[in-house]
Each structure stands twice: as structure tokens, then as C-alpha cells.
## 1
Amino acid sequence: MELQWIKIFLPEIKELIETKDFKGLRDFLRERHPADILDILRELEPTERVMGFRLLDKNKISEVFSLLEPVEQEDLLKQFSEQHAKEILIEMQPDDRTQLFDELPAHVVEKLLKLLPPLERKEANELLNYPDNSAGRIMTPEYVGLRMDMTVAKALEHIRKTGLNRETIYVCYIVDETQKLRGVASLKNIILADPEQFIKDIMNENVFFVHTTDDQEKAVRVVQKYDILAVPVVDNEDRLVGIVTVDDVLDVVQEEVTEDFQRMAGIQTIEEEYFRVGFSKRILNRVTWLVILVVAATISQTILKRYAGVLGSMLALTYFIPMLTGSGGNTGSQSSTLVIRALATGEIKLKDWWRILLRESKVGVSLGFIMGLIAFTIAYISLGQCALAMTVGVSLWTVVSVGNVIGLAIPLFFRFVKLDPAFVSAPLIATLLDATGLVIYFEIARRVLTLTVPT
Amino acid sequence: MELQWIKIFLPEIKELIETKDFKGLRDFLRERHPADILDILRELEPTERVMGFRLLDKNKISEVFSLLEPVEQEDLLKQFSEQHAKEILIEMQPDDRTQLFDELPAHVVEKLLKLLPPLERKEANELLNYPDNSAGRIMTPEYVGLRMDMTVAKALEHIRKTGLNRETIYVCYIVDETQKLRGVASLKNIILADPEQFIKDIMNENVFFVHTTDDQEKAVRVVQKYDILAVPVVDNEDRLVGIVTVDDVLDVVQEEVTEDFQRMAGIQTIEEEYFRVGFSKRILNRVTWLVILVVAATISQTILKRYAGVLGSMLALTYFIPMLTGSGGNTGSQSSTLVIRALATGEIKLKDWWRILLRESKVGVSLGFIMGLIAFTIAYISLGQCALAMTVGVSLWTVVSVGNVIGLAIPLFFRFVKLDPAFVSAPLIATLLDATGLVIYFEIARRVLTLTVPT
């Protein structure tokens, strides 16, 4: 089966709905993967959507429901009967449930928690009690636990009996009678071992774990580094309480990338989904940097004021200010992006700084030369003054060369003082280079145009 | 075991090396995870590194070697004897091998291919023959294949016999006698089934696959969408030839994010690792946008020239040009980043465009008001002219409001005409807003300062 075959089936589904062939629709949906059902439901009108949901098998409802965005989940819950909502909630995986509750308003969560049976309610409350963004908050208690004195055959039997509802059965954790984590065995190890062997002889004692209160990013680092399908989470007394699986890790990675993008645009991190962020919060997240940069632009203003003499004696110099400051900023944001991303993926290390500076300086000088030549040509054609065109060309060359180096030096410096290099936003670089570019421009102008500055 | 314990052990390792306790070092490394050995080796001096490598067990060498960056792999291969290189290459997973060959110069690949036994050489050649960035190029032929008429017990026996060298045993593929893909069964399905059942009765016939020549991103989409551990790859005649696993998917996702970051900074995509990109290529990747933007800045220049009269009669207007154009660009790059990222993660859809425009317009007008007030204050303090300060404040307010909307409208428009919104770079937005901002500024100036423009 190939991806995106949905479009082929959509007319068929629409017809089933129009002819009210609910049996046909039910049979059709039964065969489909939850992710595809989600696609289908999203293509339908709101009323058709609720109806489609009602036609799904019980276990499939909660699978499809878990795939929805929290906003969509909230909308749907409002339209379901209490009984229906209860059924879905009970069937959901504990970690998906925490994620849903995390996004809902407190009074809705309270109402929904009351729908859960005592055991699930206790579990949900425990998970919600871990700090925001902690490993405990994203883990699921649904792991396979084994004992050291089990034989492989006995362990397999245990997995067969309890495995159906576990988040994964491919990694099994070995705990002692006090629930302390003692080792790990992959299902591969177990399957390939002799049925008579003891689990303690095939398990790996060097098991990597995180604590419930550790940041979720630590769990991500462990899964990524050791290429494992899940990482166990232990409490303060080293007792195993849950696992974080690789699919949750993909979600966290996604979040982190969004964080980097936003920082680089000078936005404070917004964790909520786009449409859930309130008005005042959206202002607050963005205003800090914007105001800092307006104030920082006072430097450019002061510089321009200082060179008012030069400007006054040749107004045409003004025409090229946007071209000049813009080019510096553009080059700087290119080089800073290259360095920030390469630092994030680990392609370059701080200790390579000298090599990076050397490499990029050459690139910057060459780029500056090409751009300077073009700027010279443009200036000469438009104003016909060779000295002025020369000033513009040489200034652009210098500004681009300098801007390029500044753009890569600042993120390296941030890493050096242990700040996230992604805080070096394009706007910050651009504002810094506005000021630098203007000084370069007017100093070159003074010399090339042999103008005198009034003191 | 916790992450980053390496630092604790490093002094111990250094001592083992200094006292030339090779046996102790060998024992120490045997216990470690390949990812940790990699960390250790990277902390060592180059000569110590080669020595450390020689102390590893045969099977661990190729595991650690596969984790290295291609540049490091190339460096090491030069220092190994032919026999040593051969041993490592043979032990490597086929997909890791393709990745290494992909990065090496053709003549080195040819030499290394000759070291491989005929079977592995044929396989490596076949994989290298698939197009760049295709699913065939990143797949591994090391999957578990089952037959429909096998019983579950028989299938488990087959998995036990052949599973050791397979990339994954957690997903098994069912093929017929012509090697055509007929279904999929997870090890979970198999383990939880009755041993007497037939594979054809427990397999899922709705198996999602990609073709060898499909783009690797398609394989990624399938794995992400259906939350599966691997996707099968078939040839033109629907015969199963390999699989792409979830760890390869994480790598591709990483690459794609880098692509987005670079596009948003106006850099053409660089696929190679940072230090492998040659000088001329680094120039070419960056110069296109930079030159386009220099030429585009001619618009700003033309505008300034047109308003020379206004400027000449009040030179102080010049002082605030960088503040004004900068603020417009900064706001625009914030809003474009928010929209581009939300489109990439699917949080917002094109059909929501009206809702987004409405929401963000309010935010932009409010941000502009705050910033305009600050700009007014700064201008009034520094020059003491109320009318001028008013011009600056009102212009900034307008420019920010407009810039904010333009910043989010352009990526939405790109998506509408089916271009990647990530092509909307911060530099592009900034350059567009320079011109827009200047027109707004001078038109407001003309009115507020009641100056006349010479025609």
C-alpha cells in the first residue's frame, strides 16, 4: 500500500456517507490504519466527522483520538456523551492521556479525571504531578518487567500473558523484589537465547536510565545516543516507574527544533500549539527582543548624527544605506545560521573555532567582493559618480566580510560562555551590523570622497 | 547508568594509557557501549585514538566505526592496514557501508570495494546504483523474510536462526515464491499468537511500502505517519529488496530540518557535513540570494532618491532609517518564522489563513504601538523636535503592523502556490520591508512635517 492513497478513496467515502450506507462505511473504516482514518476524518465536514467517529470500533476510537491535536480532542470531547468520553479515556495509553490533560483547562481535567476508574485516576494524577517537561511527565508505566531468576522460557510466557497492553514488548526491564532496576534485555536477546538460560545471565546490567524529575530532553539524549527503543525512568530510590519510548522522543525533537527556530527569530519560546496561545502571551513572547532592538537602533541613529556633516555634503550617500546595512545583515544571518545549526547537530565543535573562522573569512571576503562589484555597477549606472560608486562598492565589500565573521563569531562565543547559540537571532545580528556597517561606510566615504568632517 | 558519566572515567582511561596498561584498557572498553567508546575516542589524542581502536573487539570496531562521521572514517581508514580496513568493512551493516561510500572520493570507493568478498561487493554496488537520496540508497537488505504457509512456531524458529545479523527482527515481512511482498507481521503479533496458527492468518496484508526509486523523504513520511519501526522497499515488480529503519529516519529528519534552517537564512541547501563543503560550493550556495538582495535593494535606493527633497529639507529624518527598516524586518521575520514552522509541523493549515491573518494583525498593531511609543520617546529626547518624533513614532507603528502581516502572508502564499514556505527567508522579508518601510516613512513625514516635495 502506498502513502497518500486517501485521495483515491475519498470520493468512495463521500458516497457511502451521502447514501447513508453506515454498514459499508463501518467495514471500510475497520480495514484502515488509525493514521489514515485521521486523514479521512479531517477531510470531512464537522457533523460527518462526529458521525464517522461513532462508527469506529471501540479500540480504534481511542487510537485515532490519541493522534488528534489537543485542540481537536477538546472540541470532540465536548460533543461526545459522558459515557462515550469515559470509554475513550479508559482505552487511551497513560502517556497520551497525560498529554491531553496537560493541554486542557484545569476544570475540564478535573471533570474528566472523575470519569476514570480509581486505579487509572490514581495513575493519571501521579503522572500529572511530575514537573512540566520532566521525564516523569512524558513516560508511560506500561512496560514489561521481568525477574532475574526467570528462565528465558518463563520470561517469554510472561511476555505473552502481559504484553498485549504494553507500550513496547521489544525492551524488557529486570527489577528485583524492591522494584529496583537491575538490568535490561531486548526481546531479540531473549528470542535468540536458549530457553533454559536464566534472564540474569542474558540481561545487560549496564542499563541507561533517567530520573522522573530529569528534564525530558535528557531522556531524548539517551534514546538518541544509544539508539535504543525506550529509556527506563526511575524514582529517587532507583525504583523503575515507567519508560519513555522512541515515538515520544520524535515529538520532543520536533518541539526542540521549533524552539530553535523561534529563538533565532528573536521570539521567546512558545510551547503551546499555534492556535492555543493567547493574545497577551503572543505579545509578551515577541515584544522583548523587538524593544531591545529598537533601543539598540539608537546606536545607528547616534552614528548617523555624528556623520551628519558627511551626509549633508553629499546627500546621495543616504541612498545606499539600506543596501549596505541589509547586505551586512543578510550575510551575517547566513553565517550565523550555518554555525548555529552545525553546533546543534554536533557537526562542528567549539574547539574547531579557529578553523571555522579561517574558512569562513575567505568565503566572506569573496562574497563581499562579488557583491561589492555589483553594488559599484548599480551605483555608477544610477548616479554616474565614480568616486561615490567606489565608496559604495568598497564599503559593501568590507561590511559583508566583517558581517560574515561577526555572524559566526557570536554563536561560537555564546557556546563558549555556555549559552544556547540559538539565542543569536537574525534580528540581533542585523541590528549589530547596522551600526558596524554605517561606521565602515562613512569612514570609507570620508577617505574616498575626501570630504571633511566638521568637528 | 546515567548519561555523560564519561567525564568521570576519562582520568582513569588517560592513566591506563599513560601506564601502558593495555589489558586494563581492553577490559574497560569491552564493558562500554559503542556510543560511549566513541565519546572516549574523541577525547583522546589522534595517536591514542588509533591505538584505542586497535584494542577493541572485532565486532565492536565496526559498530564504533559506523558511528563516526564520514570525515573521521576516511581519516582512520588511511591509518589502518588493508587487512584491518577489510575486516571493518565486512562487519559493517550494508546501509552504513553505502553511507560511507557515498561520502568518499570515487577512487577510494573503488579500492575499498575490491577488499570486499564477491557477495558483499555485489550488494554494495547494487545499493550504490540507486539514485541519490532515494529509498534504495538508504535501505538495508538485512530484513527477516517469512512465508505465508509457515506456522508461528516455525516462523519463530526461522527468526532464531537468521535473526542475529538482521537490522531488526521486530518487523517481519511475508513474501511469496517470486519474492513479492504480501504482508507484514510484527514480532509482537507473532509472539502473542498461538504457535499452531499460520503466518498468513496473523499477517497484515495492508502493508505500507515505498519503491527503491522513491525519494528517501517518502520513506520517512511513511515511518512517521504510521509510527512503524521500519518500512519495506520494493522494486518495479513489487519484489521486496530491503527495509528502511526508524534510526535512518531520524537521520533524514535531522537533514531536512537543517535544510529548512538554511533556506530561511537564504542559503541553498548544503547536504554535505560542514567541513566537507568545498570553497567554491560554499560561495555558490550563498551568493545567489545575497546578489538578488543587493539588486533588490536598488528599490530602496530609488525610493530614497525620489524623496531626496524631503530628506534634504530635514536631514535628521535620515537618522531613523535604520531603526525603522530594522524594526519592520525584525517583526516580519518573527511572524514569518512562526507561520513557516507551524506549517511545517502541521499545526496550522492553509485553509486557516483568514483566522491567522486576523489574529496576527491584532498582535502586530499592538507590538507596533509599543515600539512606536518607545521610538517617539527616543527621538524626542535625542532631537527635541516633537513633529519629527511624532513622524518616527507613527511610522514605526505603521511599518511594524504592515511588516508583521507581510511576514506571515508570504509563507502562506508560497504554500498556496505549492512552493516550500521555508524559501521565505528572513533576508527576503527584510529587503522587501526596507522598501515598504521607507515609502511609509516619507509619506508620513511629508504629511506630519508638512514639507513640500519638489516634483
Note: The two ends of chain B are 78 Å apart (CA to CA).
## 2
Amino acid sequence: MYNYQQLNQFLKGKGGNKMNDIINCMKARRSVRKFMDQQIPDQDLEAILEAGRYAPSGGNNQSCHLIVLQNKSVLKELKELVELEFSKMEIDEGMYKSIKASILASKKGGYDFYYSAPTLVVVANQQDYGNALTDSACLLENMMLAATSLNIGSCWINQLRWLDGNKEIRTFLEKLGLGENETVCGGLALGLKAVKDQEPLKRTGNQITYVK
Amino acid sequence: MYNYQQLNQFLKGKGGNKMNDIINCMKARRSVRKFMDQQIPDQDLEAILEAGRYAPSGGNNQSCHLIVLQNKSVLKELKELVELEFSKMEIDEGMYKSIKASILASKKGGYDFYYSAPTLVVVANQQDYGNALTDSACLLENMMLAATSLNIGSCWINQLRWLDGNKEIRTFLEKLGLGENETVCGGLALGLKAVKDQEPLKRTGNQITYVK
């Protein structure tokens, strides 16, 4: 298993930045969607959560709420409930492609929205707070980068955000600790990788305009 | 000036992670609001922008648009326009505290929304894209961390997002390259620091709930 120093060595050989482990880590981060059953070490989980908590927030608000799900039966129940609720929805042409895909997969059966990762972190924030989404995204990005540096696989999970207005899902999550005034902003699957590391993917979008 | 290795040494002495430069960088990042007049080196700008472009995006959409403003007269004109437009607005009790503060400061005069940083990066994304804000926030967080690793000061700037619906501001930004179908999601002030580095600030919010 590589650590951040070995990661940096790996990247230096693949066109990474010769001088900067931090930027190399950003290039090395890839979404992982296949995990080992084994749980991630507690010390890695704690390091990842702490990294997330250190993300910036608007006016130093620090109002994210991280709900860390590691209980197998709770995760199984949530997975089945997500499938059930998506399966009741009808496709609307204006829908985002990934929401359509979730509905279609759920109607077909066997939909696994979090890739059966051993850990799922739900990130919520205050409903009436204008920076809820952006603060949560910074926190999630920190967690993804910290996971990368520790050789833990991760993938952003958006399904619980899409289902935030769903009564059954909310009731379930509120029993687990979601506040009544909180909204789900995103989620993160975490686990030991069951796939080979991939090389950095070149960026062709995210265009730049210079006004010098 | 420290680089990422010196930064890591600094953090190790301040309760940082003994083993991981990447997590230390997240702890070391602090908002900087006072900058030197001197421009940042082009190679640092390029490294920061590249780091941003490597942020994850929903479905690998890569639809952020980075508008890099370094032209002094354009920045001065934009600063004055932002002040003018905020000064026309009336305070509403339901408004976010920082928007209220911007309006009050603008009515008073001399409001400098981007701390006269030599570089202001405006981050926009597609208006009809559901992950516009979260993708942009991940990109901004990568840029802030890369800047920290290069000893460049940075601060998230939200004012142009708040004014995204303002006709005068949109006309100005569209002349600079903002697309008609794009919405401003955030911004970043970048410059050489004119303040001493601060120690990491302990996190007391961003609470965690465990379901094990």
C-alpha cells in the first residue's frame, strides 16, 4: 500500500509536479467504485474526517454535520430504501442524467447507490444557510484528497442529496441523527480499493479565460 | 518564503500530522485578506489553476469556467461597479449577514470586495447544471490548497456570486468572457501575503455523528 510519499513518487513518473506533493495528490485522486468488504482503519477514518473539518466555511460558519455510517444493517436498510424511493419516481425529460439513471436502475432492481462501501459519510448543513452546498463541497474535497493521501478509495455520492425532499428518506436519516433543519448536501463512500490505481486523467474542460 | 516542505515542518511543530503533508496543508490554509501589490509569479498562477482544473466534477462534467483577472484598470472598474451596485440595494432583515455588511460598507464608500488582490479568479459554471456550485467549490478548494502549498495567500470571494443576477455586473463580466448561460459560483483573491502566517485554527463546529 502506498502512502503519500510513495504516491508522490508514482506521480513524478507520470508527468506529475516534480516539486509539490499536494498538487500531485489532487492529480492522483480518482473516483473509486469498487471496495473491499474490510473496514478502513479507525485512524485513517479519523484523519479523513479531521481533514474535512478543516475545510474553509463562509464566515467561518463550521455548520456542516458529518454522519458516519459504518453499521452494516443500517447501510443495507438505507440502500434498499433508496432503491424503493427511486423506483417510485417517474422519469422527466428535464431531469439530470444521473438522476434518470438512478430511477431506471432502481426500477430494474439491485441498485447499489453507494457501491457497498464499508463507510458512507453523509454531509449535511443548515437548510437556510446560503453557503450550505459550497461549504459542504469544500469539506468533501478535503476528505477525498486526505483519503487519496492515505490510499483509501473514495467516491462522491449525490443520491441522498437528490432525495433530500423525500419523506421516507428524511425520516430514516433523522433517526440516525440528521437535524430537522438540516439538508443533505452530499456524501462520500470510503473503503479499501478493490481496483488498481488509475493514472491521472487529463483535463480538457474547466476552461480558462485570461484578462491580463 | 516557505515551500510545501517547510510548511510541513512548520505544522509538525504546531500539532500537525507527523506523517502527512497533504493533511497538514489543509490545516495550514488560512484566509488572507492583505496582499502585496506585486503580482504572483506566472508559474505559481499556472500551478494553482491546474490544481483547480483537477478537482472532481459530477459525471466528469468539467464545465467550470475560470476567468483570471489581472488587469489593474479592469479590476479597479469592477471594484467600483460592485460598490455602486451594492450601494443601491436596501437591507432586508432576512439577508445573509455578509451581504448586509457589503451593502452597508458600499453605502459608506470605499468598499474593496476583493481586498485589492493582484489576481482575482472568477469561477463560473453552467446555469442549468445541478452541480454547478459543488463542482466550483471543489475547484476553489483545490486552488486554495495549492496556493497554500506555494506560499501564496488566498481568500474565497463571494460577492460576484451574490450579484450574479445584477444586470450591470453581468454586462461587465460578459464583456470579459462570462458566457450568457453561465452563472458565477464563487471567486478567489490571490496574492503575495502582506500579513504574517497564522497558526491553524482549531475546529469546534462541523460536528460528527457516528453510526457504527
Note: Chain B touches chain A through 77 residues (CB under 8 Å).
